[in-house]
Amino acid sequence: MRTATKGMLAGLGLMLASSTSVLAQELTIFWAEWDPANYLQELVNQYEAETGVKVTVETTPWSDFQTKAFTEFNAQGSAYDLIVGDSQWLGAASEAGHYVDLTDFVKENGVLDKMAPATVKFYSEYPGNSGKYWSIPAEGDAVGWSYRKDWFEDPTEMANFKAKYGYDLAPPATWQQLMDIAEFFYRPDATPPKYGVAIYTDNSYDAMAMGFENALFSYGGELGDMATYKVEGIINSPKAVAALDAYKKLYSFTPPGWAKTFFVEDNQAITENLAAMSMNYFAFFPALINEASNPNAKVTGFFANPAGPDGDQYAALGGQGISVVSYSQNKEEAMKFLKWFIQDDVQQKWADLGGYTCSAKVLESEAFRKATPYNEAFYQTMFKVKDFWAVPEYAELLTQLNQRIYPAVVGGEGTSQETLDALAADWKATFAKYGRGG
Amino acid sequence: MLNNMITSLDPQSRAAARGWSDITIRNVFVIPTVLFLIVFNVFPLIYSLGFSFTDFRASTKDPANFVGLKNYMDLLSDPFIWRNFTITAHYVIVSVAGQVVVGFGLALLLNRSFPLKGLVTTLLLLPMMLSMAVVGLFWKLLYDPNFGIINFALGLGKFEWLANPDFALYAVALTDIWMWSPFVMLLSLAGLSAVPKHLYEAASIDRASRLYTFFRITLPLVAPILLIAIIFRTMEAFKTFDLAFVMSGQPTTEVVSIRLYKMAFQEWQTGKSCALAYIVLIMVLCITNVYVKYLNKAKER
């Protein structure tokens, strides 16, 4: 009897010991449901082959990515070891202690030298210029443009365009040209109808902000002073007002029903012959060069966000960094994974699979820049990106922007000055509420 | 013999002899139910009421600071919240009025004998048995300007239902009417079948017109049950989330529940969203009380 008891206890002990070791060899990365997540799963399969540690990329639709992630954080759940979180989450997630401080890791492993400076600044550092890092740049992304090369290169269209605007029809180098071309191709009464441009108008998360920022930053405007949180006179400056006027004008050249559109619809504008040009994140461009998903793949071209009237040329930042979740039971293993992930050869594989590496070395290589029709535009863009507020209350700021900008762009309500004055007042009150700024 | 024995026992022993005693029933059914209600209903209700007076944000580890009535004052002075309430009120009026008209109309049609009446009634009840999210997605396809059957059937070309800020709310309300009119129909049918036949016979002998019969006999007698349907549908329509969330996303369809969801789970303004939830609760209670007052009057008649 005693022997049987001993045997049972030994078995139980062995079972517990073995189950612990099995758990330690598994990592779960949480990300949104899109192609880059599939590429990441392919990449981490190689990590499993090399180390025996199984890594699973768990995904959820974009629409509930933020809610699901923060619900898990707030519950201090250990379901995810790493998370590829949006750049504007940095403040909320780091101040609340949801992310592990990676400052030492970043410095010890030379992340600052390995990754493109803008990506480290916007995906990893919080507060800005603090030297504190909370993630490793994972998926670089920004907003760029696709266009119909066949429409642009049609001799009749080229001649008509030159006759009307006095310069050659080509991918726009300035926002003024962008608006001219959008106006030129806007033909709702043609058979089949054609439209000038597809832009972001969705008001539910950050689409409207990302879309408007492309005009704002290139027109020389700013969201506010990121160091002092001063917004009055900045978000409603004459340059910002001109940018909103330009965005409103672009909206008038969009296809019908373009009142709530984001990345899916903007790709459809090209695949379904709706618009001459379309704004979208570079991460969604692979679908446009795939003939299976885009019948116009061979005649689709790409360009970087054009310059504004004073030559400023910036784009809204997308993309995400990868962070270690504070409540993970496998933090050490997660750190080992990050160490593997930032290696040059792994970053090269990441780029080869279709992921948008942030590795400066890979980005600058000729091979990368020529690998796809849009990589050159992506390379150019990633060195001139700007981002939305990354403060913990970013979601409130987004809501306020949507509440002010959306009716102005889609409904034509009020003047741009009135809209941005009201937004400045909203943001000022919000920053005051959270004790930011003077 | 056994019956005599049982009736001679005291109540406790009598119950015990029949099966479970009152004490057992209390222990097995009543106490767990009360505990369940306290844990899952009463406690969260009180807990969230407490949060509504704080600046608590669930996304941070900061403690909840007492801010008194600030959340309520801020919400009640926020023009965007009032716009959400206005949209909600608009939606409730259009949706409930539509359901009452369609539902009661269907009930009047079905309140007679005809072949396959049972099958027709069952088929008409199908919409309300579907999930709200599924109905929302289904109607989104029906409204699609490119391949939706509604524009094709009505010859509306590329008319935008859900993308048009002026029509989106009506499009969502129309879907709600399609889905929940059968509920009003079902209750109305029950009310109509309870109207004594002799009243109609008397009206017929008196050669009363159909309109007179409807307004003097049918409607007053069905009114109490119709009011119950209106109470239920008003409360539900006031809390609408799924349909508007799935089908549209326009600011013009942002009913107060959607705003509440965004405030609570996207902006993580936990304390403020609790206050908004209480404002909604108070409003629903007030509206319901008005209805109940009318219901009691209708019953007295």
Order of helices and strands of chain B: HHHHHHHHHHHHHH
Spans of chain A of 5+ residues with little confidence (pLDDT < 50)? 18-23
Number of helices, where a helix is a run of at least 4 consecutive DSSP H or I residues of chain A: 20
Separation of termini of chain A? 76 Å
Question: Mean of residue pLDDT of chain A?
Answer: 92
What does the largest sheet of chain B look like?
A: none
Radius of gyration of chain B: 25 Å
Shape category of chain A: globular
Shape of chain B: globular
Describe the largest sheet of chain A.
5 strands, mixed
Helix content of chain A: 40-55%
- Strand-pairing-aware structural class of chain A: alpha/beta
Explain what you see.
The complex is a heterodimer of chains A (438) and B (301). By secondary structure, chain A is an alpha/beta fold. Chain A has helices spanning 2-24, 35-51, 65-74, 90-95, 103-108, 111-114, 117-123, 149-152, 155-165, 175-185, 207-218, 238-251, 263-271, 331-341, 344-353, 360-364, 366-371, 375-382, 394-410, 416-433, and strands at 26-32, 54-60, 82-86, 136-139, 143-148, 195-198, 275-281, 300-304, 315-316, 320-324, 385-386. In chain A, strands 2-1-3-10-4 form a five-stranded mixed β-sheet. In chain A, helix 12 crosses helix 19. The N and C termini of chain A lie far apart (76 Å). In chain A, 50% of the residues are buried. Chain B is an all-alpha fold. Chain B is 73% helix and 0% strand. Chain B is built from 14 helices and no strands. Chain B has helices spanning 2-7, 11-18, 22-51, 70-76, 79-110, 117-125, 132-143, 149-154, 168-193, 197-205, 210-238, 242-247, 256-265, 270-300. In chain B, helix 11 (210-238) runs antiparallel to helix 14 (270-300) and helix 13 (256-265) packs antiparallel against helix 14. The longest helix of chain B is centred in the N-terminal third of the chain and has 32 residues, at 79-110. The interface between A and B is medium-sized, with 30 and 22 residues.
